[in-house]
Design goal:
- The protein is mainly α.
- It has one domain (3-35).
- 45% of the residues lie in helices and 0% in strands.
- The N and C termini lie far apart (29 Å).
Length: 40
Amino acid sequence: MPLSKTSCFAAGMDDFVAKPVRPEAPYPVILHWLEAPQRS
């Protein structure tokens, strides 16, 4: 796992999309989180 992705997860982020963003890259990530159960 690249350092930037590792440091993002260590900071508490839930997911990661690398730059430069390919136009098709965010859709699977967005769909994943739209379908995820809500946290309380």
